[in-house]
Design brief:
The structure holds two protein chains of two kinds. Chain A is built from three helices and eleven strands, in the order ααβββββββαββββ. By secondary structure, chain A is mainly beta. Chain A has a single domain, classed as Lipocalin (Beta Barrel), CATH 2.40.128. In chain A, strands 1-2-3-4-5-6-7-9-10-11 form a ten-stranded antiparallel beta barrel. Chain B is α/β, with parallel strands linked by helices. Helices cover 40% and strands 16% of the residues of chain B. In chain B, strand 9, helix 11 and strand 10 form a beta-alpha-beta unit. In chain B, helix 9 packs parallel to helix 11. The radius of gyration of chain B is 29 Å and the shape is globular. The N and C termini of chain B lie far apart (99 Å). Classes of the chains: A mainly beta, B alpha/beta. At the A-B interface, strand 1, strand 9, strand 10 and strand 11 of A face helix 1, helix 2, helix 9, strand 8 and strand 11 of B.
C-alpha cells in the first residue's frame, strides 16, 4: 500500500489537537452558545403565546391599495408597495392594551381600456397610529379562547400624489378618530404553537381634515398658515361622513419562549362623501410578516 | 380542520379581501367619446370660477358642440372639440393635456405688443456687469438706481439672495423691479418678495375657491394678510434707544478720532456692497419702487403686481398685466387625458377682481423704434419716475 491509514489517523488527531489549542477560548463560547440554543428549543413547554406579558412586534408587509378620489380623478388608482409595522401589546387577565404604528408607501396606477399609457403613477404614503384597550368579556378561565371588546384612538395621515398638471396634485386625508372594536384570541386547533388574533374596528366619531371641493388645501394660497387655521379645517363627523372598517388577522407561530413569528393580514375599507359630490373610497389589504418578542 | 385546510382558508381570505377592493371601488367609467365629453363638460361647468367675469355661456357652447359628439369620433377630433371649447374661456390657466400636445389660448398676450426684448436689455442695460442672485438679475442703472429683473416665479431665490440684492441697493435712489414676460410660478415666491416692502401686517384682499357645483357656490372669502419679514418698527425703536445711550460715548470718541485722523493719511473709497455678502435681513420701505409689467406678466406675477400696486411708494409702469387671478386645478378624463381650469377668484381690498389684469399707473410702450434710439422706454420711464420722486423727497 502506498498510503497507510495509520499515518492518516495520526495526522487527523494531531490536526484536531492543534485546532483545539488554537480555538481553545472561542470554542468554549461556541459550545456554550450551542448548548443555550438546545435549551431554548427544549423549553417550549407551555403556550406563552397566550400568557400574560408585554409583547413587541416588528414586521414588514406588502399592501395593495385601491383608491378612487373624485376630487382628483375620476379614475381608480391601484397598486402595491411596502409596509413597515410595529405593535406593542400588553396582555393581562382582564384585558389587552394595544399600540400600533404602521407606515405604507405604494405606487398606484390607473388603468384605461383600451389599454394605453396615461402617463405617470400616483405615489401613496400612509402613516397610521392606534392606541386602544380591550376589556375581556366572559369569565372563562380558558386561556386558549378569549374575547375582548374595547376602543381605540386612531390617527391617520394619508397622502397621495397624483400625476396631474398643477396644484391639486396632492391629496391629503388626515383623520383622528375614536373607534370601537372587538378582539378574539384563540389557539388554533388547540395546539401550543399556533395562535390567531382577529380584530375588527369601526370609528364612531372622527375629526376629519375637511378636504376642499376643488382639492386644493387652503394653505396653498394663504401666505401665513397658523395652527388655528389648520385645525379650524377639521370637522367632527360620524359614520355618515366618514366610514372605515378595519379587519385584522394575526397568526402567531411560537418559535422560542421569547419569540414567535407573526403572519399579519390587515384589510380596511374607507369611504367619505366629503367634499360634496366628490366622494373618496379606498381599500387596502396588506399581508405581512413580523416577529414578536416577549419583553 | 387540519393545518392545511386552515392555511388554505387563510390564503383564500387574503385573496378574497385583497381582490374585492377592485369590486368595492368599482370599475373606471367607460372610455367612450360621449362619456369623456360628458365628464369634461360637467367638470368645467361645476368648477370653473370665471364664467360670469368672462361672460362665457358654457351651456351655449355645449349646444354647439354636443351634436358633433358620437362614439365613432377619433381621438384627434375629440381633442379638437374640447380644445376649442376651452379656447373660448381665454384663460392662460386653462389647458388640455394629451401625450403629445397641450391646448392653450395665448391671445391674452399675443394680441398685444410685446413691450419687451430680453436680447436688447441684455446688450443695452444688463451688459456683462449684472449679478445673478438666485433668479434675481440685478444691476445698477445710471443715476444710482437699482434694477432687478425676475423672469419667472417658478425660479427660486433664497433669503440670502434677497437680503443681498436689497442691501446692495440700500443707498440707491429707488428700485426698479422688472417682471415683464414673467409667466408666473409659485405663490410662495410672491409672498417672500412682497414681505420685504411692507412695514406692517397688511391686508391684500380676499380669495375664494369653489365650494360646490353651483355657479355661485364659493367659499367664505379668505382674507390675505401679509406680515413683514421683520418687525421693522420695533427694531427701529430699539435702535433709537440704543443710540441715545451710546450718544454720550460717541461724542467723546469722535473728538479723539478727529485728532487721530489729522495725523493719518486718507484711505481709498470702500467697494463694500459690490460683492458684499448679505449679513442682515433687508427691507425696502420708503424708497420709490417701480414695477415694470407687460401683457405676459401673468398668474403669480399678476398677483405680485396687484399686491405691489396697493403700496403707496410703488408705481406700476408698462402695459396692463395679463391676468390670471385664479388658482388652476386639474382633472382627469376617463380616457386618461388631463385638463386644468381656474377654480378660485381673488379680489383686492377695493373689490377689484384681478383676473382681468392690473392696469398700470403709467401706460408706456416700448419697441423697435425706441430700441433704435438705444433705450427701453419702459425702463427709462421708470428711471424718470424714481428721479422725480427722489427729488421731491430731497426738497422736503
Amino acid at each position: 500500500m502506498l498510503f497507510s491509514n495509520k499515518g492518516r489517523k495520526k495526522n487527523k488527531a494531531e490536526f484536531v489537537f492543534r485546532l483545539s489549542l488554537k480555538y481553545k477560548g472561542k470554542m468554549k463560547i461556541w459550545a456554550s452558545f450551542f448548548i443555550l440554543l438546545c435549551c431554548l428549543s427544549l423549553s417550549a413547554q407551555e403556550n406563552v403565546l397566550n400568557a400574560n406579558g408585554k409583547y413587541l412586534t416588528l414586521g414588514v408587509g406588502i399592501p395593495i391599495h385601491t383608491v378612487r378620489d373624485q376630487a382628483h380623478s375620476t379614475l381608480a388608482y391601484r397598486g402595491g408597495g411596502f409596509r413597515i409595522f410595529t405593535n406593542f401589546e400588553e396582555i393581562k387577565d382582564n384585558g389587552v392594551f394595544r399600540l400600533a404604528l404602521s407606515f405604507d408607501n405604494a405606487s398606484l396606477k390607473a388603468k384605461v381600456k383600451p389599454r394605453r399609457d396615461i402617463g405617470g403613477a400616483a405615489e401613496l404614503n400612509d402613516i397610521s397610529f392606534s392606541v386602544g384597550y380591550y376589556a375581556r368579556v366572559g369569565d372563562e378561565l380558558n386561556k386558549d379562547n378569549r374575547q375582548y371588546v374595547g376602543g381605540a384612538f386612531n390617527v391617520q395621515a394619508n397622502n397621495r400624489s397624483y400625476p396631474l398638471p398643477t396644484n391639486n396634485t396632492q391629496s391629503l386625508l388626515f383623520q383622528s378618530s375614536f373607534s370601537v372594536g372587538a378582539l378574539d384570541r384563540r389557539s388554533i386547533d388547540g395546539s401550543d404553537i399556533w395562535m390567531a388574533t382577529t380584530r375588527i374596528e369601526l370609528p364612531v366619531i372622527t375629526a376629519l381634515y375637511q378636504p376642499t371641493y376643488i382639492g386644493v388645501p387652503p394653505f396653498l394660497h394663504i401666505p401665513e398658515v397658523k395652527a388655528k387655521d389648520f385645525f379650524g379645517n377639521f370637522k367632527l363627523v360620524s359614520f355618515n361622513k366618514f366610514f372605515k372598517i378595519t379587519v385584522g388577522v394575526d397568526a402567531d407561530n411560537q418559535v422560542r419562549d421569547w419569540r414567535s413569528d407573526r403572519l399579519a393580514y390587515d384589510w380596511s375599507l374607507l369611504y367619505t362623501p366629503l367634499p360634496k359630490t366628490k366622494p373618496m373610497i379606498a381599500t387596502v389589504g396588506s399581508l405581512g410578516y413580523g416577529f414578536r418578542v416577549l419583553l | 380542520m387540519n393545518n392545511v385546510t386552515r392555511a388554505l382558508s387563510f390564503l383564500f381570505l387574503v385573496l378574497l379581501l385583497t381582490t374585492c377592493g377592485k369590486w368595492i371601488v368599482g370599475p373606471n367609467p367607460e372610455n367612450t367619446v360621449s362619456n369623456n365629453y360628458d365628464y369634461f363638460y360637467r367638470a368645467v361647468k361645476e368648477n370653473y370660477s370665471f364664467f360670469g367675469e368672462k361672460k362665457v355661456a358654457w351651456d351655449s357652447l355645449d349646444q354647439v358642440y354636443r351634436p358633433l359628439i358620437n362614439d365613432s369620433l377619433s381621438n384627434d377630433s375629440l381633442y379638437s372639440i374640447l380644445s376649442t371649447m376651452l379656447f373660448a374661456l381665454r384663460d392662460g390657466h386653462v389647458n388640455l393635456y394629451i401625450n403629445n400636445d397641450r391646448s392653450r389660448n395665448a391671445d391674452w398676450y399675443l394680441d398685444y405688443p410685446a413691450n419687451f426684448n430680453q436680447g436688447f436689455l441684455n446688450r443695452q442695460y444688463w451688459k456683462g456687469d449684472y449679478q445673478s442672485s438666485g433668479a434675481l438679475i440685478n444691476t445698477w442703472l445710471a443715476d444710482s438706481i437699482g434694477y432687478v429683473y425676475y423672469g419667472s416665479f417658478r425660479a427660486g431665490f433664497s433669503k440670502g439672495h434677497l437680503d443681498y440684492v436689497l442691501n446692495r441697493f440700500v443707498n440707491a435712489k429707488g428700485l426698479i423691479i422688472d417682471v415683464r414676460e414673467n409667466g408666473g410660478g409659485s405663490m410662495r415666491n410672491v409672498f417672500r418678495l412682497v414681505d420685504r416692502f411692507i412695514p406692517e401686517r397688511t391686508y391684500f384682499g380676499t380669495m375664494q375657491y369653489k365650494s360646490g357645483p353651483g355657479p355661485d357656490e364659493f367659499s367664505v372669502p379668505d382674507s390675505v394678510f401679509l406680515e413683514p419679514l421683520k418687525d421693522y418698527q420695533a427694531i427701529a425703536e430699539a435702535k433709537a434707544k440704543q443710540e441715545k445711550k451710546k450718544s454720550k460715548r460717541k461724542k467723546d470718541k469722535e473728538e479723539e478720532d478727529k485728532k487721530e485722523e489729522e495725523e493719518t493719511p486718507e484711505e481709498e473709497p470702500s467697494l463694500a456692497g459690490r460683492w458684499a455678502v448679505a449679513d442682515s435681513t433687508a427691507m425696502m420701505l420708503d424708497k420709490p419702487i417701480v414695477v415694470l409689467v407687460n401683457r405676459h406678466s401673468y398668474s403669480a406675477t399678476n398677483f405680485f403686481s396687484a399686491y405691489m400696486s396697493t403700496l403707496p411708494n410703488v408705481t406700476l409702469i408698462g402695459d396692463q398685466s395679463g391676468g390670471g387671478g385664479g388658482v388652476p386645478v386639474s382633472f382627469e378624463l376617463p380616457n386618461g387625458w388631463k385638463f386644468r381650469i381656474s377654480a378660485t377668484r381673488t379680489y383686492l381690498p377695493d373689490g377689484y377682481n384681478i383676473e382681468k389684469g392690473i392696469e398700470p399707473d403709467i401706460y408706456q410702450t416700448t419697441g423697435p423704434a425706441e430700441e433704435l434710439q438705444g433705450i427701453d422706454a419702459i425702463i427709462e420711464k421708470g428711471r424718470e419716475v424714481i428721479l422725480e420722486k427722489a427729488a421731491a423727497v430731497d426738497e422736503k
